[in-house]
Amino acid sequence: MSHSTDTLLFNQTNRFIASMQQLMRGIGKVSAHLHPQSLSELFLQLETVTTPALLTKTVNSIQHQLWELPAKEQALNRKRLITTLSIHVLQGTSETLRLEAASWLRLLLQAGLVTKPEEIFVTLVTATVHPRLEENKTPAVREQEAFLHLIFQCFWPFRFPYPAYSWEAFPTNEVFYPLAPLLEQADSDMQDTLMSIFAELPTLDDADILEHLLPVTLQWSQHTDVERRRRVASLLARMNMGSAQEALGRLQVDTDPLVRESAKSAAVYARRA
């Protein structure tokens, strides 16, 4: 057999194999469409996913099936979904997988699909202070900052004009105690996010928070950055401490008009509270 004939047969064989592979993939897609995975199978798959892409694909499939169930069954299965995602957040094998699962928890909370919002906050706070993130290395800091941003975004469904939850469902201050010590070691960006989180709490008189938050708020009240002085007023107003109230008083006569306005508004809020 000539070389040209061998080449022709080889090319034809390759084309045949490629065609068969394409056909099998097509059959697989049709089969998956005609015989979708059951909810139980999807949950088993979710428990063992190792990539963010597969996690998201599986959660989307679960969500699609949940909408077709009666309300009671939806609630039970969504609780299982939240539990499984929480396990990935706390025990996931990679940063990307943990953050993808955390993003889903945030999304479910923002959509008003979580019956106990505080549990989501507890999971995210626990993940933020996990021992594996104690090392002050770039990947750990990056993951901590990502979790902190997600925590802050979880406050959104409590806000007007369209809150998904009543204030009775708002997490207690104790949930955020573990975050307070981070203020002492945080860089500027992380400290900024932490201050935004604590600014969401209705009161800041808890000793476990004040110990770490008060020194930072006093520093901010005298900061050269006008925006920091403006923002810190609302935190000072929620602290029943002499030094905090003195700092708030100074901000009410600050050289910047926006700072003065913010401080006066915060002082009015404090008197009403």
In helices, the fraction of residues equals 55-70%
Radius of gyration, in angstroms, nearest whole number: 26 Å
Overall mean pLDDT score? Answer: 89
Total helical segments: 12
Strand content: under 5%
Nutshell version of this structure?
The protein is mainly alpha-helical and 273 residues long. Helix content is 68%, strand content 0%. The protein has helices spanning 3-34, 39-48, 52-66, 71-91, 95-110, 117-128, 138-153, 188-198, 207-221, 226-236, 242-251, 257-272.
Features:
2 domains; 273 residues; mainly alpha; 12 helices
Describe it for me?
27% of the residues are buried. The radius of gyration is 26 Å and the shape is elongated. α3 runs antiparallel to α4 and α10 packs parallel to α12. The chain has 12 helices and no strands. It has 273 residues and is mostly helical. It has 2 domains: 122 residues; 97 residues, no CATH class.
Give the arrangement of secondary structure elements.
Elements: H1 3-34, H2 39-48, H3 52-66, H4 71-91, H5 95-110, H6 117-128, H7 138-153, H8 188-198, H9 207-221, H10 226-236, H11 242-251, H12 257-272
